[in-house]
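hi! just following up on the protien thing from before. the input was this:
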Amino acid sequence: MKIPQVINTYCPRCNKHTPHKVSLYKQGKARTLSWGQRQLERKRRGYGGEPRGRLRRKAKITKKVVIILTCNECGRKVWRNLGRLSRAEIKR
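and the predicted 3d structure came back as:
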């Protein structure tokens, strides 16, 4: 799906429709010292095998796409979920 670079949509801070700059959400690097990651590393030690069990069902082949809309007037960022898409790109 091709997404336009600028979308005219409602801004809750400006309380009106304004042009918004569009960017794709990209997940940041996970923290290595977070509590969940430390527990996972503990369970991986030794001869334990899979720490959370093996995934037996068929894996999903697409990811849910999220876009970030940034208001051109006030700079407020709004996230919008587009659902499952095989490909999403911003039109140049």
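The longest strand covers residues 16-24.
The beta strands are 2-3, 6-11, 16-24, 63-71, 77-85, 89-90.
cheers
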